[in-house]
UniProtKB/TrEMBL annotation:
Protein name: Alpha/beta-hydrolase
Superkingdom of origin organism: Eukaryota
Length: 483
């Protein structure tokens, strides 16, 4: 076949995926428009019908959950925002807004005091060490506090250990859908990628937090893309390294190998900008909240599980069924299609690079080229780095990552852990949180913390933290089998 744009680079299988994918998207848009015009009574009818079908076909567990567990799951599932999630466990939160240099208004959240305590002067310094948490792609700050047990929620543990905990939100998501220059319904509002997170969102949020708390430095904990944003920001802002005393990357992302679904992976790598054809140039997967509103939560959780298996080969065996039902309702938040295109560009080249605006470089593959997108100079990062990664995480190539990071990077392996397990797994309070506390104690110090012994003084440590897979409880297994 001739080497023509698009035509010469796609196989028959990729063309098939393109056609069927386009038809599905057209159908999905048509269905969404219909649902938007339906009265609430009709939407509730679909919800009750999906619940009835679920129960009729054996979806209910043989051993029903305990009343207390069901109550917690229901409260988390139906919590409308970050504040209601914190109130479930009796934590007082603060809301802040930071204006980026390019005009976006970002929502920040804060947990300044321990459980049951309130401050008379919110928005002021606590005198405590500051920790900043940042979410991943298609997420917001709620993913950190939607756990069914307070002891497994990293921010709650950090607060009890005497830290002043802050949460960031990317432009465009639920808490940051505002700009002084562009309307969120315009294409220009959504014209941002990882570059903009690195140049503006991360440094501007950190500067605001340090100004508010009067602290000289803070510790950064990023999950998935939240870690990639820090890698990028610290590499292009040398002065930011003086303000971040420690960077802990959970399920770190830099240059993933690709997706487990070969059709999707091949199609998007062959032409990353096809994402614009599928999803437009604004937000991606904007219809997800609509589907959540009309589908019974256990069914929605199962759909998410199936999608994660298909796309990433994640089976989520370390996350309980109750946790999935509670947390999946808070998993998705708006993100730009351009930021997802950026990730497919990175996957295609296997290089952690800035966004490639040149169409020809994405159309023609040549061994010699006069143009390459600029790499993020991640080897220049001075801030201490600790990586906590799952050895079953298809998005993490730890060896390739370590080659692109400075020699002082420390890597910790979590046996049997996948991507989302590091956030919501059954044993994060045994495997993940203690490692975070040890790293903070070593690099930051905190007289209130009781994290145990310091981390070993080693440049690159690769060691198992869990002895094997964690079995599901009988009732969870019954529920998963019935689904």
């Amino acid at each position: 076949m001739l080497n023509l744009p698009l035509i010469g680079r796609l196989s028959f299988r990729e063309y098939t995926a393109l056609v069927f994918g386009s038809l599905f998207l057209v159908f999905e848009i048509f269905l969404r428009l219909i649902v938007l015009g339906l009265p609430k009574q009709v939407i509730n009818f679909f919800y009750r019908s999906s619940r009835a079908l679920f129960i009729r076909h054996g979806g209910q567990p043989k051993v029903p959950p305990k009343p207390r567990d069901k109550k917690i799951v229901d409260r988390i599932l139906h919590a409308r925002d970050f504040g209601e999630l914190c109130e479930i466990f009796d934590y007082t939160y603060e809301e802040h807004v930071v204006l980026t240099k390019d005009g976006y208004l970002l929502g920040l959240h804060r947990l300044p005091s321990k459980r049951g305590q309130k401050r008379s002067r919110p928005g002021t310094s606590t005198g405590k060490p500051v920790v900043y948490l940042h979410h991943g792609l298609l997420m917001n700050s709620e993913v950190w506090v939607c756990l069914t047990d307070a002891e497994r929620a990293l921010p709650f543990v950090l607060v009890e250990q005497g830290y002043d905990v802050w949460f960031g939100n990317n432009r465009g998501n639920k808490y940051s859908k505002k700009s002084i220059h562009h309307n969120p319904n315009s294409t220009k509002f959504w014209d941002f990628s990882i570059d903009d997170f690195a140049w503006h969102d991360i440094p501007d949020s950190i500067n605001y937090i340090l100004e508010c708390t009067k602290a000289p430095t803070l510790s950064y904990i990023g999950f998935s893309q939240g870690s990639a944003q820090a890698f990028a920001a610290l590499s292009v802002h040398p002065q930011l390294n003086e303000k971040v005393n420690l960077f802990i990357a959970l399920a770190p992302a830099m240059s993933p190998a690709g997706l487990a679904a070969p059709i999707v992976d091949g199609l998007m790598k062959s032409s990353p900008t096809l994402m614009f054809l599928f999803f437009g140039r604004k937000s991606i997967l904007a219809s997800t909240p609509m589907w959540q509103s009309i589908i019974y939560p256990p069914i929605f959780a199962k759909l998410i599980d199936r999608s994660l298996i298909w796309l990433f080969n994640w089976h989520s065996l370390n996350i309980s069924t109750n946790q999935k039902i509670a947390a999946y309702a808070h998993l998705y938040s708006l993100a730009s299609t351009k930021s997802v295109v950026h990730w497919f560009q990175i996957m295609r080249t296997s290089v952690f690079q800035m966004y490639d605006d040149t169409v020809l470089s994405q159309v023609f593959r040549t061994s010699i080229s006069s143009y390459y997108p600029t790499r993020f100079p991640t080897r220049n990062i001075v801030t201490p780095i600790v990586l906590l990664y799952g050895d079953q995480d298809s998005l993490v190539d730890i060896d390739a990552m370590l080659k692109e990071l400075p020699p002082h990077t420390v890597a910790k392996r979590l046996r049997t852990y996948e991507h989302l397990d590091i956030l919501w797994g059954r044993n994060v309070h045994k495997d993940v949180i203690p490692e975070v506390l040890r790293a903070l104690k070593q690099h930051v110090g905190n007289k209130e913390s009781s994290a145990g012994p310091d981390l070993p003084n080693s440049r690159r440590v690769l060691e198992p933290l869990s002895e094997g897979p964690i079995p599901s409880s009988s009732e969870e297994k019954d529920l998963m089998d019935s689904l």
